[in-house]
Each structure stands twice: as C-alpha cells, then as structure tokens.
Amino acid sequence: MALRSPRLRSLLRPPCRFFKACVIPTLSYAAPVWWPSKVEKGRLTGKRLHAKVFGKVQRRALIIICVAFRTTPTHALEHKASIPPLRLAQDKTVRDAGVRLSKLDLRNPVMERLPGAWRNGRGPESPAMRANCKPTPLTQAASHGDPNGERIAAHLVPPWRCTKADYPGRYTVTGKGTSSRKDEAAKAHVNRLGSLQHPHVLIAYADGSSLEVEKKARTGAACVLPHNGTQVKAIKAGLGRHAEVYNAELTALALALRAAMTCADGHPQITNIILFSDNLAATNVITDPRPRDGQLLAHNFHTRACAFLDKSDSHSLEIAWCPSHHNIKRNETADALTKEATALPRNQRDRILGTNSQNPVVAQFPKSDMMLIRWWNGVFLKFSSTEQNFWIKDNNNFILDSVNCGQRTQRELVHKMRK
C-alpha cells in the first residue's frame, strides 16, 4: 500500500487482497461478452451506465479499505490502494481476452467467428458464418489481439513423443546446484571449464538481451561456440520490438543448438554438446514443448535435440545454467553480441531457425498493462492538482495523508496491482 504508516499498511493489505481476489473477479466475470466494447480512436466506449454502477461498488469498498471519509475523492482512494478504476480494469480484461485468442488452434470453432486474418486469410467454413458480417463482442475483443501472434497449440506434439526420460544420462538439464551465491557459482563454472577442454566436447554460450533503440525496446539473441580454447562460431539475431528477454533467451538456445549440430556434422569426433545460459527459466522450459509461451521455440529445440541424440548412442546433450556478469569470458562475449543484435531485423531469426515470424504472446500482456497504467495516470492527473489531502482514521485518531501526483512510476503501479 501507499500509506505512510507501516502499521496501517499491514492492516490494509488483507482487505485489499480480498477485494482484488474476490470482488473484482466476480464483477468482471465473462466481461468480454457483456462489457460494451465499441472501439473509437483506439479506446473502448459506450459503457457509461455500467461504469457508473461499478464506480459505486468500488468507491464503497475503497472507503472501507482506506478507512477514509465519504467525501474523499475516488481517484485519491484508488491511487492510495493501488486499485485502478473498474472501467479501466474491465477494458484490460477485454484486451487480455483478445490476446488469449492467439492460443486457440485454427480448427477451434471460435475461429469461425473471427475475421479472416485470424484464419490465415481463409473464409469461414459455415455458410451461416459467411452470411453474418455484423460485429459481435467476440470480434470487438479480437480487435485488441494480434492475428500474427504466436499460436499455442494444445496438440502440437503427440503424447508418445520422446522426452528426456527416453535418453537417460544423455539429455540433461543442470540448474544452479547447491551454491546460493553467484560468485561461488562462477568459480565452480570456471573450474568445470578446465575439465571440458576435450576434442569430443563442444561448448556454446547463449544469451538474450533487450535495449532501448530510438525510444523503443528491441530484443536480440546471440550465441558463441568455443572449442579447444578458440572461438569457432558466433551468431546473432534480432527479435524486433514484440518480444521479451525470455523469448530472446529461448531463441538463443535454439540458435546455439543448431550451430552446435552443424559443427558436429563437420567434425565427427564431437559427441558431447553443452549449452550454457544465464536464464534459469529458459533452461528449464526449452526441452519441453508444452502449451505455453515459447512453445514453438521449445518444439524446434526439442526436435533437433532428439535428432542429434538418435544419431548415435555416444551422443549427449546438456543444458546448464551459468552465472551472468561474473567475468566469464565467452558469456560476456555473447552478452555483447546480444546488444548488437537488438538493431538487426526480426526476419533474420526466422531465416536462421527456419520458422515463421510471429509476435510472442508473452509480450502482449505487459503491453496491455502499460495501456491501463497510461490511461489511469491520465485520469488521475485530470482530476488532481499538485497535491490532494484527505483524512485517514488511525486507532480512532484521524491523520492527514496526501497524494502526490507523478510520484509513482508505471513499473511500481503494475507491481502493486499484481499483488
């Protein structure tokens, strides 16, 4: 909470959580269906009556949560409790529903009711759907999604697919280990590198990064392949403005495996491939193409990994974590290459990996959060002067609290909203 008293902050946290976890989901149940979502100038309109009812409910709850007078401005209560106006929260619910449509398979019946761009330009198979061209709440929610976004398929791989368990001791993922400090992990990593200097072992470092280029965040991925103490290959690829660092880390691992397999094909003595990444989440996800963000990259990686392991029983593949920014030479080289890759076009990654250019779903939800915060800041500044004061009850004594405009960053507001 934003209240200055630590004791008040601890007292107000439970009712805030209850309101966010119970009341708001109840009010917004099936909101994409009944919440008016007419789009005008990029914003949802036509919901004045609903917003008035929701505003009364939220104001009554906020007065109880903040223990404030009934004359306290609503926007000040919302700002103090880190709870956005319900009408803006409902708009976000509709936008998120449009983003989640990207997870549907092309054969899903819902796709028949969406515009042709969601079906790769194909028309609906049902004659009734071809005749009905009127806008619906579903099509209006879909207008907030990206038809070219990453498709997450529930049945991309069969249940009888090969997994790590089918290659005991040959297909492994190594985490942080017992060391809890990065400097100790860096020393252990350097000591291990000394035992990996063999002709039959090929090491690769993969990394992803995000930088602001021309006031827009861009991401890039890169990998470095040292062998017997010399760098044999370095690859970098850009992911554009629609990806997160998580996607860049997955892309870097996929690039590293592809490059390592190419080197192994030209050097038959290479039987062991070890991929290092400083992102623990990426190392745990890249080997399992389950329906989630980054599924296509994980599927690409897992398919290539199984092909490499099936070539010979002597082949092995390990995906291991290594600490970042601890003077590990090849890892620092890969990090420098990722920053250079942020300026590269996105289609280069698709050319290297042989995939289609798609916007990751994971990057669209933070964009929806930022839209909510931007509109909320606009509403707050519209109704606020430089400072708004109101009274809060503290153990039967009223204390004066204030709301300072512009004191919170967007990142802080998103973090508090998600609590």
Mean pLDDT over the residues: 76
The unreliable regions are 1-5, 385-419
Please trace the helix and strand order, writing H or E for each element.
HHEEHHHHHEHEEEHEHHEHHHEEH
Helical proportion, percent range: 40-55%
Helix tally equals: 15
What composes the largest sheet?
6 strands, mixed
Terminal Cα separation, in Å?
Answer: 10 Å
Q: Kindly name the structural category.
A: alpha/beta
Q: Walk across the major sheet and give the strand order.
A: 3-8-7-4-5-6
- State the domain count: 2
**What integer value in Å does the Rg equal?**
26 Å
Shape: globular
Strand content: 15-25%
Number of strands: 10
What would your notes on this structure say?
- It is a single chain.
- The protein is of the alpha/beta class and 419 residues long.
- The protein folds into two domains: 1-151 and 360-419, no CATH class; 164-357, Nucleotidyltransferase, domain 5.
- Helix content is 44%, strand content 18%.
- It is built from 15 helices and ten strands.
- It has helices at 6-27, 31-34, 48-66, 74-81, 86-100, 127-131, 137-142, 182-194, 245-266, 280-285, 295-311, 329-341, 347-353, 364-383, 410-417, and strands spanning 38-40, 43-45, 171-174, 201-213, 216-227, 230-240, 272-277, 316-321, 387-394, 397-404.
- The strands form three sheets. The chain has a six-stranded mixed β-sheet, sandwiched between helices. The protein has a two-stranded antiparallel ribbon with strand order 1-2.
- The longest helix has 22 residues, at 6-27.
- The protein is globular, with a radius of gyration of 26 Å.
- The N and C termini lie close together (10 Å).
